[in-house]
Design a protein that fits this description.
Strand content: over 45%
Strand order of the largest sheet: 1-7-6-5-4-3-2
Low-confidence stretches: none
Radius of gyration: 15 Å
Shape: globular
Number of helices: 3
């Protein structure tokens, strides 16, 4: 069983407001830092992204990959790798839990990455932790900067 890395943060917005930002892939280059392009390739019956192509530039790591998304109501979205140049696996999820009577949201991000090049497990987990922390920080900042949040 693959090991995963997980981290959480509390966002001063409702779960619906947080999920709206997560689901808006076209805006990812505005707040994620590493994502330079995001293109929705397919949507589900509800109009949510089902397959998304992402162009990443994280300094030494540049990659283009496609992820398949599964939406679990308004509380969770998970994804898995369809194709990539550098990765063998990229599985993750955002789980949202209302706190403070629903006015705030605890966001838990879980990620498992497997690269095509050999890498020590401890280095891989450290990289996962950096990715997660940056994503949570960017998400929190983006959601809380929107009007009404």
């Amino acid at each position: 069983m693959a090991e995963h890395t997980r981290s959480s943060t509390t966002v001063e917005a409702t779960p619906a407001e947080v999920m709206a930002v997560i689901a808006d892939f076209g805006r990812y280059p505005d707040w994620t830092g590493e994502v330079k392009e995001a293109e929705v390739l397919a949507t589900d019956a509800g109009g949510r992204a089902e397959e998304v192509r992402l162009l990443l530039d994280a300094g030494a790591i540049k990659d283009e990959h496609t992820l398949r998304y599964t939406w679990h109501g308004e509380q969770e979205v998970s994804w898995s790798l369809v194709k990539s140049k550098m990765l063998r696996a990229l599985d993750g999820s955002y789980r949202l839990a209302p706190v403070a009577g629903g006015k705030h949201t605890e966001v838990t991000y879980q990620l498992t990455v497997d690269v095509k090049i050999p890498m020590l497990g401890s280095i891989k987990r450290k990289a996962e932790k950096v990715i997660i922390d940056r994503a949570l920080e960017g998400l929190k900042k983006r959601v809380e900067s929107l009007p009404g949040s």
